[in-house]
Specification:
heterodimer, A: mainly beta, four-stranded antiparallel β-sheet, 12 strands, B: four-stranded antiparallel β-sheet
């Protein structure tokens, strides 16, 4: 069975600095997707970034980028120039291949941004 | 375009009471899911549906029932509420076209449910 592990329950970063959130996963599949979701205090689940396993290039979205290490089954999220609005819970999620729908979520990392 | 609409946003129940959490989506998505979110546990899948008339169990289905009579609606029923079901519940819908979708899974705003 696939699993997703986020080993950092809480992280802190100074405003304008860079922080990296860790995620590892376990799967025997070769076709899958990985996601990072942000959940602010409003409870909304907001997609931050996605990575297709078949793509070697790491995904980037403005200040957010990932370090996807397929062999190591690692999928970390880097937030550059951290802003107060980045404070939230961040969840790593796995989806096995296109045409499936059973997402597996990690337990989350709470990110605090210090002014 | 409302996306995924969950009602109610908050609910307090007594042990043994029943209730239905409503979920509706207007994006014609095939897939719909219910998750529960507990501190330190992330989101865990309760039940899911791949289309009208088809449902199946997720990771934590006990104590919950679902049905999918239409593409749009996917209600979650608690037949006899227990304190262990105190949680935040999220409904989500997904299109099959994950590869070409900017937003592969749409979430509702959640329902905070407390069982006394």
């Amino acid at each position: 069975a696939q699993t997703v592990t986020q080993s950092q329950p809480e992280m802190s970063v100074q405003e304008a600095e860079t922080v990296t959130l860790s995620c590892t996963y376990d799967t025997s599949e070769s076709d899958y997707y990985l996601f990072w979701y942000k959940q602010p205090p409003s409870r909304q689940m907001i997609l931050v970034i996605r990575q297709e396993a078949y793509k070697q290039q790491n995904a980037t979205e403005n200040r957010f980028s990932v370090n996807f290490q397929k062999a190591a089954k690692s999928f970390s999220l880097k937030i550059s120039d951290s802003q107060l609005g980045d404070a939230a819970m961040y969840f790593c999620a796995y989806l096995r291949g296109a045409g499936t729908y059973k997402y597996i979520f990690g337990t989350g990392t709470r990110l605090k941004v210090l002014a | 375009n409302a996306g995924v609409t969950q009602t109610p946003k908050f609910q307090v129940l007594k042990t043994g009471q029943s209730m239905t959490l409503q979920c509706a989506q207007d994006m014609n998505h095939e897939y719909m899911s219910w998750y529960r979110q507990d501190p330190g546990m992330g989101l865990r899948l309760i039940h899911y549906s791949v289309g009208a008339g088809i449902t199946d169990q997720g990771e934590v289905p006990n104590g919950y029932n679902v049905s999918r009579s239409t593409t749009e609606d996917f209600p979650l029923r608690l037949l006899s509420a227990a304190p262990s079901q105190t949680s935040v519940y999220f409904c989500a819908s997904s299109s099959r076209q994950i590869t070409y979708s900017n937003q592969p899974q749409h979430f509702g705003d959640g329902t905070r449910l407390s069982i006394l």
